[in-house]
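Notebook B, p. 112. Complex prediction, attempt 2.
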Amino acid sequence: MFRFVLRHFNLYVLTLLVLCIFSFWLAYLFPGDPLVNLTGLTLNDPADYQAMAQKYHMDSGILVQFWHYLVLLWDGDWGFSFSSGLPLYQEIFDSLPATVELSTYALLLSLLIGIPLGFLAGLRHHRTTDNALLAASVVGYSTPVFWLALLMILLFSLQLGWFPLSGRISLLFDVPHDTGFILVDIWLSDMPNKGAAMINAVQHMVMPVLSITIVTTAIVLRLTRRAVVEVMPKEYVQAAYARGLSKHQVILRHVVRNAMLPILPLLAMQSTILLTNAMIVEVIYSWPGIGNWLIQAIYQRDYPAIRAGMLAVSTLVVSLTIFIDLLARIIDPTRERGARAKI
Amino acid sequence: MPLLDIKNLTLEIESTQGWIKALDKVSLQLEGGEVRALVGESGSGKSLIVKSIVGAIPEHWRITADRMSWKGQDLISMSSDARRRIMREDIAVIFQNPVNSLDPSASLGEQLMESIPDHLLDKGWFWQRAAQRKQIAVKLLHKVGIKEHSKYLQAYPSALPDDICQKFMIASALAASPKLLIADDPTRGMEVTTKVQILKLLTRLNKIRGLSILFVSHDLLAISNMANTMTVLYCGQTVESGKMHQLRRRPLHPYTHALMESAPSFRKDLPPKSPLATLDGTIPTLQHLPIGCRLGPRCPRAQRECVKVPEERRIHNHFYSCHFPLHRSLK
């Protein structure tokens, strides 16, 4: 067990190191002075320039520079944004929770819808229900998110006026920034109109969450269906029937667990797609998350922000993937424990 | 009335070349307290018969029979609920492949306790039931010869050797104290000592409790010690069935004869280093089944009439399906 956790830890550290190397390299790849790309400051005063060069050890070898870059990253000194002039660490950790919140709700919702539907389709393999669900999932899977989001805006906010067009909450409410998760923040705060603020925030959330959910649900449905179809003809399922268990008992006791165990790591893999979709959706709904922020940075050629934002997002994805994979293997008694860790 | 009565059971499997009769008019009868051996080469459909009896065949396969009844109740037309009750209380199965027949994600204890029916627990409160189940499970494990029960009850099938899993299968088959035990190669992959132990257990259960056993195996020696009656199967057709000693002393079907000849332990007069008797050829694949008597191409006595399926004939309780049985001389 220890060896097994250690292997995942090794993989995690090495992957993060590669990401750090890449982000450091970006400072040199981007046009302009590497020092400016690293700090994000316009250093017109030679004295300031000297001080910064000293801090980043620009006159030493590349490895020493990288080492000091790592130390600064660890200390939370990620440089400053070109466009806003604010520290990047602050900016990223202000906007990241909004994205995580959006993706979490979308993921939970799609698991809640996708897994039962997947079971339904898998248990009715090659029948009308299965075919209908499969067709629906193909449609959901192949719809481009940005287009779907625009359609939803056209229909639900412009035509029907059910939901607000963009943003996270109406400007009328002043929610203190505490955890970064807006629903949690409203819950914890002592605002006068908590209930109204909650309803307003949820209304803002419906469309972005739904646009991401549709794609993710389609993936979850297909994965679950396949797993169920594979488990159903297994000998132990037949043996359980032969033991005189009813269909419900067989499914609940033997099929569910065996179908879900192998797809848990596969679901972790979907976090990349989920996050990418969340970032696109954020731009369309002006959701103040990391995706929106990062794409603005790309528009404005804000090199330090691109460097730091890429590092933050990829670290999030890698952490999620490796952690869920580790979890899946720890709770799965059917798998060989000594297997190598992989992404 | 026989316990289990199967007459002309036919199982058809769909393949790319159309429907194939994997079982062709198989008949099998089992009286209460009888141990019947079901013998045949691998690929002769022994396990398919077992699966058809317990209903563990895929839905799209076609199964037809003139008669397939359990104590006079028809198994095919029966509602799935009623059939499930019979499977739960009266019939137990030991499947051929223990590792695949156990749920890899559930601990062995969980699976063993699951097969203990509720009526065996005395009426306690519901929180006492788990403990009672565990007690029964431990007793069952001791019965099949597993001593370190606490070690194995928590374990998962992938962590244990095959023979322990097989013993768990046997234990869970005996849990409901069934009337009929269908044992599909129950001693496969076991050491000789454990094998003897299991066979002794089964024989004892048969003698004491009157448990009927349908014993499916390759192991002719074990069979001849245990079984009272025997059905010989070739390629999905029943070729001969009757009392064990009759079949051993005077087989009527050429295939039975060849089968007995091929087992060295059955022949006391076998000189050292002499070649063993075999039938030429191999058992045909399902895609290339011969018409008529399926033994035809391999049979030393085959003649032109053998392209027609022989009728089943009987001499007292000895059934055989052959145009040219061994007790009649060839023209």
